[in-house]
Design brief:
Layout (H helix, E strand, L loop, with lengths): L3 H39 L4 H19 L1 H18 L3 H6 L4 H41 L5 E9 L3 E9 L4 E10 L5 E12 L6 E14 H4 L12 E14 L4 H4 L11 H14 L4 H29 L7 H28 L4 H22 L3
Antiparallel strand pairs: 1-2, 2-3, 3-4, 4-5, 5-6
Helix pairs in contact: 1-2, 1-3, 1-5, 2-5, 3-9, 3-10, 5-9, 8-9, 9-10, 9-11, 10-11
């Protein structure tokens, strides 16, 4: 049963958090409107789509993304204010241990952590899908991909020089197909390639050169071929234009890094598995997105404990000193996240470790600060 002290601290915690969240998100939306308004007007974006498809989901996404940091600042703000108004000292002098005062903080942190988990795994992927579709339609910059290489099922290697989403054209498109003995059996090169409008698997190729190789031992497995010169049959084909069906879509070969934001947990796991098979170099980025959906909410506990520990003592400089200390911790935490993320995407550092190591380090720091906090 919650006591008066519990209800008091939980109420101050949640009210301060939602107030700060509302103010920060309102400012973020104002700055975003100022930046995007000319593009909305030029692209004739409907007002209803701007409000509900974009900004409603914009607030959900960025509010949840920065919720841990806002929780941290909120805890420092109202706890430091309580300390300055001498509310913490009577609580301690009444004989209550510091852990008893900490309990309502952790209850409120648990409420916010569960909300963030639900948003990350169930709500935001669908909301991001709507937001990203709006961005794609009305203001997102064109997608440019260069030097693409991937391996598709059926021992097929696909690579091309460049792709421009504005023109939807692939340049220097090459397909190599190998048999189960790793021998080249089909080579196709086209100067340009594009998908027919409305038909995701129908491709239009120009200036096509093909080489089809048939190995005689595959046709006559019992025939022993002595000469290596005559053990294969080569067919050369040159065409100015060629319409064909290919087993992949342009979306499989030209994707944005933030595409993972619009996928549910199951979809993202399957997507990562397919991209690993293709040898996509962006796989660590997708894995980081997957693991962050759980690690960020759990950072709420760590940052709450740090916030209470550093702000529960009355300081001569007032609340400003506590806020400055809190902002310093926020910057260090963000810096640690960036360092480990870059290590995962560039030098092969395990993505799961890159996501959780900052929480572990700051968790140890939180325990240390808790032990030296006034009791």
């Amino acid at each position: 049963m919650l006591k008066i002290l519990d209800r008091y601290i939980i109420r101050k915690f949640l009210s301060t958090f939602f107030f700060m969240l509302g103010v920060i998100m309102l400012l973020a939306m104002v700055f975003d409107v100022a930046e995007r308004l000319p593009e909305f007007i030029n692209n004739q974006a409907p007002l209803k789509a701007i409000v509900f498809d974009y900004y409603f989901n914009f607030l959900l996404y960025y509010g949840n993304t920065f919720s841990s940091m806002i929780i941290f600042i909120s805890v420092i703000w109202f706890t430091a204010k309580m300390a300055q108004e001498a509310e913490i000292i009577p609580m301690l002098n009444s004989g209550r241990p510091f852990t008893r005062i900490l309990r309502p903080y952790m209850i409120a942190a648990t409420i916010l952590m569960l909300m963030s988990l639900v948003l990350n795994h169930f709500v935001l992927p669908r909301a991001n899908r709507v937001r990203l579709d709006f961005e794609e339609s009305f203001y997102r910059d064109r997608l440019l991909v260069e030097n693409y290489h991937a391996e598709f099922p059926g021992n097929e290697l696909v690579h091309y020089a460049s792709y421009n989403s504005q023109e939807s054209i692939i340049n220097d498109f090459v397909i190599e197909r190998y048999d189960n003995k790793n021998r080249l059996i089909h080579f196709l090169k086209a100067r340009t390639a594009m998908v027919d409008s409305g038909k995701t698997n129908y491709w239009h190729l120009t200036d096509v050169f093909e080489r089809k190789i048939t190995y005689l031992d595959s046709l006559k497995p019992n025939l022993k071929i002595q000469s290596k010169v005559f053990d294969q049959k080569i067919q050369l084909i040159e065409e100015h234009q060629k319409d064909t069906i290919l087993p992949y879509k342009i979306e499989d070969m030209a994707i944005r890094d933030n595409i993972a934001e619009a996928m549910t947990y199951t979809e993202l796991k399957q997507f990562i598995r397919k991209e690993k098979e293709k040898g996509n170099s962006n796989v660590p980025t997708f894995e980081i997105e997957l693991y962050q959906r759980t690690s960020y909410p759990f950072a709420t506990y760590v940052l709450t404990l740090i916030g209470v520990s550093v702000s529960s003592r009355k300081k001569r400089g007032g609340i400003g000193v506590n806020i400055a200390i809190g902002l310093l911790f926020v910057f260090i935490y963000i810096f640690a996240m960036k360092v480990t993320t870059v290590a995962a995407t560039t030098v092969g550092f395990p993505p799961v470790a890159a996501v959780w190591i900052p929480n572990v380090i700051f968790g140890i720091l939180a325990i240390f600060l808790y032990r030296i906090a006034p009791k």
